[in-house]
Structures are given as C-alpha cells and as structure tokens.
C-alpha cells in the first residue's frame, strides 16, 4: 500500500469537515460542519497559512493535518500550530499520523518557523514520543488540554 501526503484538494473538504466535526465538536460548539467546510476551503494553498495536508493510502483519503497561525486566541505568542491531526479509525496505528506530522515539520521549517505548537486533550504521550514538550496546561472552553511545543 502506498501512502502519499499532499496538499488538500477541494474534493476532500466534505469528508474532512465531517470527520473533524465528529472528532472535535465538543471543544467549540459554535463551530459546525458548514463552518468547517468554509474554513477548509481556505486551506488548499499550502504556500502559506492556513494550510491542510491529507494522507492518501492507495488514493483513498485516510487522514489530515491542518497548520494555522493561531489556534488558541489568547496565546498569540505561540505560532504556528498543528491543528486537527486526524487519521480515520480503521487506519490508526500504521504511522500515518507521524507521516503527516513529519510533513508539517518540513513545511514549517521551510517557511522559516522555529517551532510548532498544538493542543491535545489526551494524546500528550503520543506527541511526547516524537519530542513534543508540554509547555502549559490550559482550559479550552472548559476542557482541560495541554499546549505542547516542538522545536524545529
């Protein structure tokens, strides 16, 4: 099976918006699937932020990773952010998430960034194995999360 990581294409927006809504609706109830589709439409050009990369396994959409300038409104000092790292459940445990993160690291380094940030509810140990460090425990809409940083 061949894994490819590429820029988001409009044909994948509908599926990604549905996946992202199902996975993260509880973190911000003001964001619905329609809003997610609109936001993703601005992520297809990966030369600047925001940008989204997708993972394709033998041409089938299996995951995504978004890169945004800011993901936590009251932490403007942290930028850029990994956001919405997602792999479809049946494809988890195959290294697809790591491949998406590795691609994001390369792209952000190429754009001149020195670090990446992310928010996670429960995947801190996963990210820590890749070198991410918790820099802050934070409340995001009354949900306890970690803010993590990875030097590039």
Automatic annotation (TrEMBL):
Stated name of the protein: Putative N-acetyltransferase YhbS
Keywords: Transferase
Pfam families: Acetyltransf_1
GO cellular component: cytoplasm
UniProt-listed InterPro entries: Acyl_CoA_acyltransferase, GNAT_dom, NAA80
Lineage: Bacteria, Pseudomonadati, Pseudomonadota, Gammaproteobacteria, Pseudomonadales
Gene3D superfamilies: 3.40.630.30
The N-acetyltransferase domain, residue ranges: 3-152
Superkingdom as given in the UniProt entry: Bacteria
Coiled coil: none
CDD domains xref list: NAT_SF
A single MF term (Gene Ontology): N-acetyltransferase activity
């Amino acid at each position: 099976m061949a894994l490819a990581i590429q820029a988001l294409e409009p044909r994948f927006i509908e599926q990604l918006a549905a996946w992202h809504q199902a996975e993260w609706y509880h973190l911000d109830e003001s964001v619905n699937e329609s809003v997610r589709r609109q936001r993703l439409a601005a992520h297809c050009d990966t030369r600047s932020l925001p940008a989204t990369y997708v993972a394709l396994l033998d041409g089938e959409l299996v995951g995504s990773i978004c890169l945004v300038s800011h993901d936590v409104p009251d932490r403007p000092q942290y930028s850029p952010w990994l956001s919405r790292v997602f792999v479809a459940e049946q494809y988890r445990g195959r290294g697809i998430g790591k491949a998406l993160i590795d691609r994001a690291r390369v792209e952000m380094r190429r754009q001149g960034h020195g670090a990446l940030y992310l928010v996670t509810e429960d995947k801190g140990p996963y990210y820590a194995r890749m070198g991410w460090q918790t820099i802050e425990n934070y409340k995001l809409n009354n949900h306890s999360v970690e803010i993590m940083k990875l030097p590039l």
